[in-house]
């Protein structure tokens, strides 16, 4: 239910991260001030042809950029910081606060994008307090997650304290010894937490999420049993996992080669900051791996999600220049597929097996644990903070609903919580929480250039090309209303019940019939020198007639590219507009001028 807006309310506006996994972005707004919490990206689905990056629609932020006082970052995962360089191309953010590792990774991204001068990066440590604008005071509280240097934040606002958990699980034996600061959470709970915004990713899973250290024995066993080369893939940003596998490589007397740019970057920054501890002698350059005996080589690679251009995917396809799968290789998938990536991961595993690799994967192998808390972790968070109001966050709809049910079981009244979508404007007052409005939300797509947005119209055309192909027809019409020569017909990716010659004859018959029947409607002649033809309307008529014929011949809906050449005022031939339309009933058009 939408209620009347309150001038004294804190607005909480998610632009990404709800009803999905990825592109986490949240706005906190009070009066004329805005702060942003995280700004992530997501990766494309199979139907997003040619798309490399998916960003949230930040139209609302751009329209209100004069209100932005700064950004707070919880940790360095791509779905939380990956969108920042793209947003900075269109608007300035005065300052960004975040953990040391996240800021190191972010600065590298900003340099690559050439936008490092459009903001100021400031690092924070556990229990640091920062102030943004007049209304927001933020304390950073150490938490535990699959990435090192991760934080929960307590935001003091005019309506009360809002705690945003960020991504979290409660790991009592973290790899780096940096334990969750449960004491500080309890202190806030004792003083009074007005609203808790909490990670919902594993809300359907009973129990506690196991400690990151629990993967050590299983990975140790796999390495001890491997006779040949060992390749391991995991999330490049899983710093704790990387520390474990590097320790195991040393234990088993293996030298480590790193494949994949993101893996190289994360390990370099994590070593510089002390989050990964190992000797330089453990590593060998990739170009020297052929000189290392198989039983002494450990290859750490990207590609755990089956990404098309990742190192492991190219290895599985036999397209990598330096690494080829051999009989006896062991490949370990120390990660579970995120929603939408399962098919790509399974295809990669199949290809590796067909090349002779022993592939170790699956939840039953004990080689991966989640970085997100399950139901008991979520209950402990609720018990410590004791919030008056509650917003389940970060997850698909069923996850948000289940988390809200868990909160009800922990004593939060149903009327004191909202299950929301991206773009919803939640207004939080001293005594109430409700959805008051909705702002522009959705997605923006970037192609491989990462500079130009892929418009929805272009994406639909790409989808149609991939599914049904394209028909191109080029013809010339003279001032006498007759075809000049034979029309040219080209088919790409089109399945037809008639052959090309027969189809061309059908096109000619349709065009000749239409010109004979309708020419007089589009020509105005007062003698040969004053002949005027409405070529644009004539082209539309011819194109629609050809579309009707093609619709009868094809089961699918291929795109139709229609090019008509006509005489100019002096009787010389010139080209009219190119028309691009689907053959089917769902009509779209894109027009591009062709030089005469």
TrEMBL record:
Binding positions (Ca(2+)): 50, 447
Record's cofactor remark: Binds 2 Zn(2+) ions per subunit. It is not clear if Zn(2+) or Mg(2+) is physiologically important. Binds 1 Ca(2+) cation per subunit. Seen in 1 crystal structure, it is not clear if it is physiologically important.
GO molecular function: 5'-3' RNA exonuclease activity; RNA binding; RNA endonuclease activity; zinc ion binding
Region feature (Disordered): 570-596
Cited PROSITE patterns: UPF0036
Gene Ontology biological-process annotations: rRNA processing
Binding site for Zn(2+) 1: 75, 77, 80, 145, 167, 394
Positions contributing to Zn(2+) 2 binding: 79
Chief location bin: cytoplasm
Location relative to the cell: Cytoplasm
E.C. designation(s): 3.1.-.-
Biased composition (Basic residues): 582-596
Family annotation (CDD domains): RNaseJ_MBL-fold
Active site, per annotation: 199 (proton donor), 372 (proton acceptor)
Gene3D superfamilies registered for this protein in UniProt: 3.10.20.580, Metallo-hydrolase/oxidoreductase, Ribonuclease Z/Hydroxyacylglutathione hydrolase-like
GO cellular component, one term: cytoplasm
Superkingdom: Bacteria
SMART domains with a match to the protein in the record: Lactamase_B
UniProt feature, compositional bias: Basic and acidic residues: 571-580
SUPFAM superfamilies: Metallo-hydrolase/oxidoreductase
First-level EC class: hydrolase
Residues reported in the UniProt entry to bind substrate: 368-372
Function: An RNase that has 5'-3' exonuclease and possibly endonuclease activity. Involved in maturation of rRNA and in some organisms also mRNA maturation and/or decay.
Family label: Belongs to the metallo-beta-lactamase superfamily. RNA-metabolizing metallo-beta-lactamase-like family. Bacterial RNase J subfamily.
Subunit description: Homodimer, may be a subunit of the RNA degradosome.
Protein's name according to its UniProt entry: Ribonuclease J
Organism: Trichodesmium erythraeum (strain IMS101)
Lineage, highest ranks first: Bacteria, Bacillati, Cyanobacteriota, Cyanophyceae, Oscillatoriophycideae
């Amino acid at each position: 239910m939408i209620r009347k807006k309150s001038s004294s309310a804190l607005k909480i506006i998610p632009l990404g991260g709800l009803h999905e996994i990825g592109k986490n972005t949240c706005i906190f707004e009070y009066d004329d001030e805005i702060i942003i919490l995280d700004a992530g990206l997501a990766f494309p689905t199979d139907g997003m042809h040619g798309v490399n990056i998916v960003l949230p629609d930040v139209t609302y932020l751009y329209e209100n950029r004069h209100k932005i006082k700064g950004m707070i970052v919880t940790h360095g995962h791509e779905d939380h910081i990956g969108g920042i360089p793209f947003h900075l191309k269109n608007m300035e953010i005065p300052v960004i606060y975040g953990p040391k590792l996240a800021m190191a990774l972010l600065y590298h991204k900003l340099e690559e994008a050439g936008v490092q001068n459009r903001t100021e990066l400031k690092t924070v440590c556990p229990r640091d307090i920062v102030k943004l604008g007049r209304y927001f005071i933020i304390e950073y509280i150490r938490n535990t997650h699959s990435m090192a240097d991760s934080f929960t934040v307590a935001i003091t606002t005019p309506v009360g304290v809002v705690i945003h958990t960020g991504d979290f699980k409660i790991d009592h034996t973290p790899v780096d010894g940096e334990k969750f600061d449960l004491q500080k959470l309890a202190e806030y709970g004792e003083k009074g937490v007005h609203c808790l915004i909490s990670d919902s990713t594993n809300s359907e899973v009973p129990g506690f999420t196991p400690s990151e250290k629990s993967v050590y024995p299983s990975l140790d066993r796999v390495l001890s049993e491997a006779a040949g080369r060992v390749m391991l893939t995991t999330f490049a940003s899983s710093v704790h996992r990387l520390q474990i596998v590097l320790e195991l490589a040393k234990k088993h007397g293996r030298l480590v080669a790193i494949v994949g740019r993101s893996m190289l970057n994360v390990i370099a920054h994590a070593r510089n900051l002390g989050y990964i501890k190992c000797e330089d002698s453990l590593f060998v350059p990739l170009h020297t791996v052929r000189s290392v005996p198989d039983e002494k080589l450990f290859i750490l690679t990207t590609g755990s999600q089956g990404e098309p251009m990742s190192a492991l995917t190219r290895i599985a396809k036999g397209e990598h220049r330096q690494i080829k799968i051999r009989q006896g290789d062991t490949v370990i998938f120390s990660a579970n597929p995120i929603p939408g990536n399962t098919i790509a991961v399974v295809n990669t595993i199949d290809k590796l097996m067909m090349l002779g690799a022993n592939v170790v994967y699956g939840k039953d192998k004990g080689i991966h644990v989640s970085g997100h808390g399950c139901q008991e972790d979520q209950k402990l968070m609720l018990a410590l903070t004791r919030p008056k109001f509650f917003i389940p966050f970060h997850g698909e709809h069923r996850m948000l609903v289940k988390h809200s049910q868990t909160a009800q079981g922990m004593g939060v009244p149903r009327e004191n919580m909202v299950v929301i979508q991206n773009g919803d404007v939640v207004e939080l007052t001293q005594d109430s929480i409700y959805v008051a409005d909705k702002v522009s939300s959705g997605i923006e797509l970037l192609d491989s250039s990462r500079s130009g947005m892929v418009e929805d119209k272009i994406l639909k055309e790409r989808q149609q090309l991939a599914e049904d192909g394209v028909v191109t027809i080029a013809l010339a019409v003279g001032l006498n209303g007759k075809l000049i020569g034979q029309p040219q017909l080209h088919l790409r990716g089109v399945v037809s019940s008639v052959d090309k010659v027969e189809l061309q004859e059908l096109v000619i018959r349709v065009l000749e019939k239409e010109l004979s029947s309708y020419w007089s409607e589009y020509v105005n002649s007062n003698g040969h020198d004053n002949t005027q033809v409405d070529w644009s309307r004539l082209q539309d008529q011819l194109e629609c007639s050809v579309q009707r014929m093609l619709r009868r011949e094809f089961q699918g809906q291929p795109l139709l590219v229609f090019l008509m050449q006509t005489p100019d005022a002096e009787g010389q031939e010139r080209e009219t507009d190119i028309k691009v339309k689907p053959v089917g009933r769902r009509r779209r058009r894109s027009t591009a001028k062709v030089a005469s």
